[in-house]
Amino acid sequence: MFELHHLSAQEQADWLRRGDVSPTELAAHYLARIERLDAGLGAFTTVTAEAALARAAYVESTVSRAVALWGLPLGDKDLSARAGVRTTYGSRLFADFVPTESDEIVKVLDDAGGVSLGKTNAPEFGLPSYTESLVAPPARNPYDTALGAGGSSGGAAVAVAAGLLPVAPGSDGGGSIRIPAAATGLVGLKPSRGRVPANAGFGSLGGLVAPGPIARTVADAAMLLDAMTDGGAYEYATRAPSWDGGALLNAAVRGEGRFEIGVMTTSPWDSAYDIAIAPEAWAALDAAVNELAVLGHGVEELALEPDDTYGPAFRTIWQAGAANIPAEGDQLDLLEPLTQWLVARGRELSARDLAAALSTLTLFERSVIRQFSRVDAVLTPALALTPRPVGWYDQADAERNFEQQVQYTPFTSFANVAGLPAIILPVAVTDAGLPMGVQLIGRPGGEHTLLAIGAQLERRFAWQRRHPPQW
Fold first, then answer.
1. 8 labelled catalytic
2. One of 80, 91, 152, 153 is an active-site residue; which one?
């Protein structure tokens, strides 16, 4: 039987503008699904049903239908403050916090006509790559609820995969959009540094964090990204060429072009940890490579130059980023063990330590862009392993926890350091029925290339037709 969430986000936007469904009707449909399904999924930490219906009615009566997301339901990641709505930042430290001001990304999406249904689940301050905090139930993978959804945008990914939202904003400081998108069979796009002017949460040491879209289709992701950028042309922090093709949605819909693509299975963590790529990840990569060759793209092998400096420098930035968490004295006991470790280590660092790490990562950024310059995009596995079970990460040993995160997600963080755009494409399904994807990394400002290639692969793999049992 047909239901409204069976439509793509683009189709829902078209239905809204034509009047085939009203913003209030669409919001009510999703709120009913959230009430019925979310207890077993953990997609939301707070649902604002009354405020959502009031907002939908306001959009319907007052806001111009010309705005990008007119009447489309969304969820705010629980690292983004919305005035008057409980915002926990995934932490018991902020379990009852209600901000009086909204973050910029929230305002941008409101201005685009979005209707927030609540706050999507995130881990403590977005620091881990899994969404299993002590302030909310874990975000569970809709394909197998014994498995986690990844993080830190885990709740957003669960909501989109299970049909609780048509599309959702996330943020990505080391893979936080791409990891959960890969785990739940979705398209997740981390934009180039500076592509989205608005940022959210507690700031971004080293310029690592970028807001971006999580969606079921490439075009839906492009539509949300266009809304996040408000269609404007912005300077990139990483030097990048301008693109005169108009809205990024155009590139995603047309899906045109033939490109040179490097295939890479090395990572900058290889010298620091034992990185093993699972057979399921190899199979997904092989499937993508085969289709790219059939489509006429040039495909060549590529490997990162060994670099022993990356791992220690990234660890320093990760720890330093936690040092500013506003917890002192007894408040530190409210933090989770991993966060306590990060805060302690971060506060032990000197200014010289931080300056050295930032300098090292700047040199690494320049090196990666140089190494990738001969190709239009670089293809890697999305994740090295299949989705991890809930509770898999060691909560008592922070060093082991960090190692586990790297072993699961070795291919994501360096795109943040280099400021490059990267997209997850869910090209495969394992024998156990779990999604497995690949990652495409583009040149600075090269989102249009990633979207074009993604659209071509989507036509071949038709991943938008795959859904978990809750669908």
1. no
2. 152
Q: How far is CA 241 from CA 134, 192, 327, 370, 449, in A?
A: 44, 12, 42, 15, 12
Which residues does residue 365 pair with via DSSP β-bridges, in sequence order? none
Task: Report CA-CA distances (Å) from 408 to 149, 213, 312, 425.
Answer: 12, 22, 18, 17
What three-state secondary structure class fits 366? helix
For the chain, list the domains and their CATH numbers. 7-465 (3.90.1300.10)
* Sign of the dihedral defined by the CA atoms of residues 347, 155, 182, 469, in that order: positive
Residue 109 — φ and ψ, nearest 5°?
Answer: -70, -35
Catalytic residue check, 267: no
Spell out where 48-163 has E strands: 73-77, 115-120
Query: What's the pLDDT score for residue 246?
Result: 60
Do 98 and 191 form a contact (C-beta atoms < 8 A)?
A: no
For residues 57 and 39, give the distance between their C-alpha atoms in angstroms, rounded to a whole number: 27
DSSP summary character for residue 68: T
What is the tens place of the pLDDT at every residue in 55-111?
Answer: 999 999 999 999 999 999 999 999 999 999 999 999 999 999 999 999 999 999 999
DSSP 389: B
Report d(CA 174, CA 158) in Å as an integer: 19
To the query of whether residue 190 is one of the catalytic residues in this protein, the response is: no
**For residue 306, how many other CB atoms are within 10 A of its CB?**
10
Q: What are phi and psi of 65, to 5 degrees?
A: -70, -5
In this predicted structure, what is the pLDDT of residue 247? 84
Task: Single out the catalytic residue among 8, 77, 91, 267.
Answer: 77
Query: Which entry of 116, 129, 176, 192 is annotated as an active-site residue?
Result: 176
Residues in the chain with pLDDT values less than 70: 199-203, 231-246
